[in-house]
Amino acid sequence: MSVPRPAAVIVLAAGEGTRMKSKTPKVLHEVCGRTLVDHMLAAARGLTPERLVVVIGHAREQVGAHLAETAPDARLVVQEKRNGTGHAVRTALEAEGPIEGTILVTYGDTPLLRAETLAVLLERHAADANAVTVLTAVVPDPTGYGRIVRDGDGAVLEIVEEKDASPEQRAITEMNSGVYAFDGALLADGLRRIGAANAQGEEYLTDVLAILREDGHRVGACVAADHAEVEGVNDRVQLAFVRRVLNDRILEAHMRAGVTVVDPAGTWVDAGVVMEPDVVIHPGTQLRGATRVRAGAEVGPGSTLTDTVVGEDAVVRNTVADGAEIGAGATVGPFAYLRPGTVLGRGGKIGAYVETKNARIGEGSKVPHLTYVGDATIGAGSNIGAACVFVNYDGVGKHHTVVGDHVRVGSDNMLVAPVTIGDGAYTAAGSVITSDVPPGAMAVARGRQRNIEGWVARRRAGTPSDEAARRALAAPETAPETAAEGAPGVNGADPAAR
Ligand code: UD1
Ligand code: CA
């Protein structure tokens, strides 16, 4: 962007936002993974200002603490009493000292404002050599906004607040967005001369325009192409509107960059999410935080991924993942829950009704069904049978389980941590593994089966079970075969090995 670099951007965020009816200060409400004020600051940074100043007041500890974390580049100025927009800017200038050059003033509650629109305002301000240029918009319903009063030649005379406006002025549909480019020195001078003799008894920043014009300076206006962009958030209805618009913008950018979004209306993607070409996002999917989806991966339907990395060509269906790393070509879901610290290797599988936490699952290893893997390291090429629990919690502390390479854990196993299963080992179905298993061993840890012949005939005589049993015993050709030799019921064992 070849626009004149502003000396400062001042973001006003001291107001209370009572119409949000919230314990959370208005500017800290989130849309698309960022607070309202952080969206504004992101747009402001697009102009590479020399200084970024945020005026805070209401809930200043909370807002200040948030900004200290998300915007360490911003200087915070506290406005003790909310005496109006003019007072807020004056407070900022008093704290910052004289600023030469252009000052852009904007609000913390207008997250749709784009850097491009602010750049157009700055360009116009510089090209027309104005003392001040206000960003305006023509809106269907200007109720509540300051109106732009122009003379017969279209020159801006003043801005009149709704509460101070005459009926004719109220009929004006060109509104003040509250965003301005000012000459720094003239702004400071104008602010020293504004009063509070108005309907709200506040120092109006808008009064600076009439003062500068009366002094013979050039006062201009720049009409925004899209009025929605300058409308701020005052209540939760507007919050939802803004979220929808921002989400549409984010999806459009991804689609133009080669991502397929099957259902844009039912897909929500945060501002910080990164996606590569040929990613496919199925309906009902939310991608949040710092999630990254690599080329060719498919996510959804019905998946919520937060701060999660999805590897190239991986497939993630009906899954909730938080802080997980899914390897290239891996498959996850449906109905999987990946909690922080889950790392699934290349080509691995986490299947249906599986929960994982702090679990490294090696390349090509599979956890296909109904299993909890907590605090574990699983090597490469291993298989965990259905319905296993990595028993990681003894009621006080958490313990780790290690499963080696090419291990076959039978179905319905409890691996009671801390425990290690060596490379190439097998465990029998239904085992409760409490001791380490050496490499290549078969661990059997379950009660031996005992058949009490004739028990039904003696204890359940005359029941349908008894009758079925009698029929079976009378037909010798249907008697059960003797069990094959080999693995005692290892799920997923190579049949060739039997
Ligand atoms: C202001 C403008 C109005 C414009 C509208 C656009 C004035 C006098 N009026 O009106 O012309 O159409 O914005 O939304 O400027 N703030 C502070 N400290 C204060 C007062 C306000 O930081 O003492 C901040 C608020 O947090 C908010 C912004 O300034 O972000 C605007 O304040 P608000 O009270 O909403 O101004 P409006 O009356 O809506
Ligand atoms: Ca407002």
UniProtKB/TrEMBL annotation:
Its UniProt pathway annotation is: Bacterial outer membrane biogenesis; LPS lipid A biosynthesis; Nucleotide-sugar biosynthesis; UDP-N-acetyl-alpha-D-glucosamine biosynthesis; N-acetyl-alpha-D-glucosamine 1-phosphate from alpha-D-glucosamine 6-phosphate (route II): step 2/2; Nucleotide-sugar biosynthesis; UDP-N-acetyl-alpha-D-glucosamine biosynthesis; UDP-N-acetyl-alpha-D-glucosamine from N-acetyl-alpha-D-glucosamine 1-phosphate: step 1/1
- Residues annotated for acetyl-CoA binding in this entry: 386, 392-393, 411, 429, 446
Q: Looking at the keywords, is Metal-binding present?
A: yes
Keywords attached to this entry = Acyltransferase, Cell shape, Cell wall biogenesis/degradation, Cytoplasm, Magnesium, Metal-binding, Multifunctional enzyme, Nucleotidyltransferase, Peptidoglycan synthesis, Repeat, Transferase
For the region Linker, what residue ranges are annotated?
Answer: 237-257
Task: Please list the cofactors this protein needs.
Answer: Mg(2+)
Region of interest (Disordered), ranges: 458-498
Q: Which reaction does it catalyse?
A: N-acetyl-alpha-D-glucosamine 1-phosphate + UTP + H(+) = UDP-N-acetyl-alpha-D-glucosamine + diphosphate; alpha-D-glucosamine 1-phosphate + acetyl-CoA = N-acetyl-alpha-D-glucosamine 1-phosphate + CoA + H(+)
The subunit structure is: Homotrimer.
Q: How is the cofactor bound?
A: Binds 1 Mg(2+) ion per subunit.
Q: Where in the cell is it found?
A: Cytoplasm
According to UniProt, the name of this protein is: Bifunctional protein GlmU
Q: Name one GO cellular component term.
A: cytoplasm
Family, similarity comment: In the N-terminal section; belongs to the N-acetylglucosamine-1-phosphate uridyltransferase family. In the C-terminal section; belongs to the transferase hexapeptide repeat family.
Q: Which domain of life is it from?
A: Bacteria
Entries under InterPro entries matching the protein: Bifunctional_GlmU, GlmU-like, GlmU_C_LbH, Hexapep, MobA-like_NTP_Trfase, Nucleotide-diphossugar_trans, Trimer_LpxA-like_sf
BP GO terms, sorted = cell morphogenesis; cell wall organization; lipid A biosynthetic process; peptidoglycan biosynthetic process; regulation of cell shape; UDP-N-acetylglucosamine biosynthetic process
Query: Composition bias, kind Low complexity: at what positions?
Result: 471-488
Which EC number(s) are documented for this chain?
Answer: 2.7.7.23, 2.3.1.157
What GO MF annotations does this protein's record show? glucosamine-1-phosphate N-acetyltransferase activity; magnesium ion binding; UDP-N-acetylglucosamine diphosphorylase activity
